[in-house]
Amino acid sequence: MQIKQTKDFQKAFKNLQQDIKKFYQIQENRFIVNWRDSRLHIKKVKNLDHAFSFRITRRYRVFFYFQDPETAIFFDIDHRKDIYRNL
Prior knowledge:
By secondary structure, this protein is an alpha+beta fold. It has helices spanning about 5-15, 20-35, 80-85, and strands at about 1-5, 45, 50-55, 60-70, 70-80. It has a single domain (about 1-85), classed as RelE-like (YaeB-like fold, 2-Layer Sandwich), CATH 3.30.2310. The chain contains 3 helices and 5 strands, in the order βααββββα. It has a 5-stranded mixed sheet with strand order 1-5-4-3-2.
């Protein structure tokens, strides 16, 4: 699986704490190998058509969608209380 990150995603990622960034790297690697890995806890985002989320930690999420069967676009990353608020 190939991953592309939007500028908004990259901007939000820069503002994360270092420990969250480390957990993100672990989850990103899992996503690349097998995006259906149960440790990602992937879920459909209810209010966004074609969007999904996966866990970084219990509190942090990544929002993404599939551009095609081999490419995922990561468009947001944030604390769960904030990421769902902006829907």
